[in-house]
Sequence to fold (240 residues):
Amino acid sequence: MAAERQVTLEVFRFDPEVDKGPRYDSFTMNVKKGMTVMEGLLHILDVQDHSLALRFACREGVCGSCAMFINGSYRLACQTQLEDLKGRRVWVGPLPHMPVIRDLVVDMAPFFEKVGMVMPWLEALSAPSGKEHLQSPQQRSIINEAVDCILCGICHSSCPMTWTKKDYLGPAALTKAFRFVADSRDVAGANRLALVNSEDGVWRCRTVFNCVEACPKNINPTDAIESLRRMLVVGRRKSR
Fold:
């Protein structure tokens, strides 16, 4: 039988419609090897406090729903092993700098609105023909990293520019823009570049690299933003 140890989860609680301010509630449980923070939160929900609010879906690090702030770091709760977190107490909070709907659930609507502004879909020259739009391995390799974005919102939450400039598109939206601009099958690159060519687009980034450090999928949004900047600068030179 696997050894167990006792851990206390300090969980952020706040209902803006009822509470005057946020607090942390303590929940103690026995933790087995392989148990994740997500499983700990679901244990609380099932056994200790049915009122706890949180988001989750795939439990496999694919959907991004369980993005949280755990022990002072941005993480996916479903991929974070309690065994790997040192100490007997684990602090779990919602994504910082985003409006709290309740407990660990934040308002993602403004985030997805920004993503929608960069046309996050492929535009083809003609109607679907029933055949594949072929792409070579070399062409695909350019967007391999950006394609892995799961829109968890972690990079957006960690970016100092999104904290202070509400109109800034943010690293996730700009990474998504690069993913389609650089896709060999797409024909709307010029339109997308025009959408991000503003003070609230690629020129707002200050290359702090918080987004790079925080991303749970090891994506480099700063590199994607710099690539978009280079495309815009080269385009300007060619147009002269």
